[in-house]
Design brief:
alpha/beta, 2-enoyl-CoA Hydratase, Chain A, domain 1, 2 domains, 298 residues
């Protein structure tokens, strides 16, 4: 059970269990606050990164791509930070993908020979772990639609928890949008046939339960339980030895493309960094003394 009293520090001004309350998404609704918020719990060990464009279903526009990159870079570089949760503001969507209104406006302007502002796609944190050298654990809390680029954002995380009402899909072929640059790693999360169904038939949408059945979602919960469940995973994560976690995550991700012999050698090599650590003494000592370990990442 997550600690409801966990101290919050961050710009959203909301406790984590308030992030998915309904907000105004009418035609005249405007952006409120930054497009991405970063809230911190447990003395900065837990980051909650929230896509905050609910009036556009948290779509990838309005500077959200660059702000998401910056949030993950902050998390990566913060030595205190151990685990991050990625979610979307409001009750309707985790992220609905590209902002097609902005995309249409940019393409029309480009066709007319007008200067077009940069959409920031070069800052897409994809693949998140490899491109950013980010080996701390990440959790997607999927609170609604995760479509196209929203699916892409969720698939960057290590585990995915979905609310019962969530829907996932990859709609690029419906609208002649590119996506091959980020789709290739899908087959290390789900089988090829399921991946092809989602990608080639762009009108396909899976329920949260179906996504769980094919192995893409780790757990399905009620909307009310979503952030509580994600925080429970996060609080368990901060009890784990941080360097061992980073080593194993990197070995599993990189080892997916290696032969077994090369992956074994890679794992052996990377774990040499555990030697001489205080944490390597603390772990067995805590076990022997039947207490919770106090890992310092050193």
């Amino acid at each position: 059970m997550a600690n409801q009293g966990a101290k919050l520090t961050g710009p959203s001004g909301l406790h984590y269990d308030e992030l998915h309350k309904p907000v105004d998404t009418g035609r005249d609704a405007q952006q409120v606050g930054p497009v991405v918020t970063v809230d911190k719990y447990e003395d900065g060990k837990i980051y909650i990164i929230t896509l905050n464009r609910p009036h556009r279903m948290n779509s990838l526009g309005g500077g959200l791509i660059g702000a998401t990159y910056d949030a993950f870079a902050e998390f990566r570089d913060d030595r205190q930070a151990r685990v991050a949760i990625l979610t979307g503001r409001g009750a309707r969507a985790f992220c609905a993908g590209a902002d097609l209104i902005e995309t249409s406006e940019r393409r029309k302007a480009a066709a007319a020979g007008q200067a077009v502002p940069d959409a920031g796609e070069e800052q897409l944190p994809v693949p998140l772990s490899e491109s950013m050298d980010l080996w701390k654990p990440t959790i997607a809390a999927i609170n609604g639609f995760a479509i196209a680029g929203g699916f892409m954002m969720a698939m960057q995380c290590d585990i995915r928890i979905a609310a019962e009402h969530a829907r996932i899909g990859i709609a690029e072929t419906r609208w002649n949008m590119g996506g091959g640059r980020w789709m290739a790693p899908i087959t290390r999360q789900i089988g090829l046939g399921i991946a092809l169904e989602l990608t080639l038939w762009g009108d396909t949408q899976f329920t949260a339960q179906r996504a769980y059945e094919v192995g893409w979602v780790n757990k399905v919960v009620t909307a009310e339980e979503l952030m509580e469940t994600a925080m429970s995973y996060a609080q368990r994560a901060i009890d784990m030895a941080p360097r061992a976690v980073r080593n194993i995550k990197q070995t599993l991700y990189r080892g997916f493309y290696m032969t077994p012999e090369v992956a074994t050698a890679f794992g052996n090599a990377i774990e040499q960094n555990l030697r001489g650590m205080q944490d390597s003494i603390e772990g067995p000592t805590a076990f022997a003394e039947k207490r919770r370990p106090n890992f310092i990442d050193g």
